[in-house]
Amino acid sequence: MKSFIIKLTVITLGIALIGWLVFSFLFPQYYLPVLPFLLIFFYATTLLIHAYQLVLAKKDIGKFARSNMLITFFKLILYSVVTVIYIAFDKENAIVFVVCLMLLYLVFTFVEVNEITKISRSNKE
Fold it and tell me: What is the reported pTM?
């Protein structure tokens, strides 16, 4: 878990740096003040879900496999609710928000799936 926290923190800080560079120099007109909070939201959500999946994987690998799809479904619902709420309040910047959210979703999902795959393989061996 400690290595995952370090990896996730480094990736999050890297995304923050890239985002700062992109929105400071390339596309400053598209910067949304909510983006740092969105990054923190993804960091916290990924960390909590990963911790929960670790507990499941250590107890029962069968239950872990069954619940993994359910966890992914609820995560998508949560992200969709956040998107709908934001768009309801700021329709003007909806496209920028959705693009940033999708990029964050892809990066954090890749990291999470990569780590869960390693854990799943080590439990089988």
Answer: 0.86
